[in-house]
Amino acid sequence: MHATSTSATSTVAAPIALVNGVALNTQAESLSADELRQRACSELLRQAAIAQGFLPATDVASVDGVLSEDASTAIEALLEKNLELPEPSEEACQRHHAAHQARYSTGERVHLRHILFAVTQGVDVVALRNRAETTLLDVRCHDGKDTADRFAKAANTQSNCPSGAEGGALGWLTAGDCAPEFAKEIFGLSDVGVLPRLVHSRFGLHVVEVLERVPGAPQSYESVRGAVAMALRQTSYVTALRQYLSLLAGQAVLDGVDLDAADTPLVQ
User: What would the pLDDT profile of 9-55 be if each residue is shown by its tens digit?
Assistant: First the structure.
């Protein structure tokens, strides 16, 4: 009985997800929902590029999620043609700057420590998130010195960052010292202490404690007008891309992947 049970477990294959009959993965892969959505979005765009004549029909779909160079170029042309991206108005830029002045300050520094739960090849992302959430709750549910001790101990025993040996200490950082997606969730805020939610980055999931903040000096609208306009263009691009992908998904036959669950298009 034991041998039979072990054999059954070892032969379980991952389900194959499809976009219009094109496989996104192999049975040997076990991908997270986000990874499948990313591949599905890329495949939808690749197929649209073929349908609209930007890419030869002979282009071969990849099951490892990596587009061919020709496909990447064709998708850029496809999006340039199909996405409507209005230039942000001066009024919209000024409103955005007024509402996000901390984001456009200069010289802000934060004193941080963190616990990194790294997302690596083959990791069970659901189990990893559960561990990270449990750790976050544990270090947030205690006050004073006990919190500091708990955080340092958790970093030392659980963090996948070398800083874990130092209790997770990262020292004083500026936004330029961090990955952009990490900096976006840390800088331009007023929070001090263990942040109430996990911080996501290309490296994984972070439990973050802000020990101190030194606010930056505000910059005039005129000095950052270009950066403000760029931020609004990026927002418009993400919105337009999400809408276009939704249109393509509505016209496609999808098996084993749910694109409605994505908050933003996961296309790289």
Answer: 343 456 888 999 999 888 887 777 778 888 899 999 999 999 999 99
Collapsing DSSP to helix, strand or coil, 250 comes out as helix
What is the b/e burial string over 90-113, where b = at least 16 CB atoms within 10 angstroms of the residue's CB?
eeebeebbeeeeebbbeebbbbbb
CB 20 within 8 A of CB 252: yes
**Residue 11, helix vs strand vs coil:** coil
Q: Which two tokens stand for residue 251?
A: 């016209």
Alpha carbon distance 208, 85 (integer Å): 36
Distance from C-alpha of 218 to C-alpha of 216, rounded to nearest angstrom: 6
Single-letter amino acid, residue 217: A
Nearest to 138 by CA among 155, 160, 122: 155
Residue in the structure block whose two tokens are 């800083």: 163
CA pair distance 122, 125, nearest whole angstrom: 9
> How many alpha carbons fall within 13 Å on the CB side of residue 239?
9
Summarised one tens digit per residue, pLDDT across range 114-133 is 999 998 888 888 888 989 99
13 HSE (CA, 13 A, CB side): 7
Contacts within 8 Å (CB) and 24+ apart, 248-251: 248/44, 248/45, 248/47, 248/48, 249/40, 249/44
Closest-CA residue to 268 (of 34, 28, 27, 26)? 34
Ordered DSSP codes for 45-97: HHHHHHHTTSS-TTPPP-SSSPPPHHHHHHHHHHHHHH---PPPPHHHHHHHH
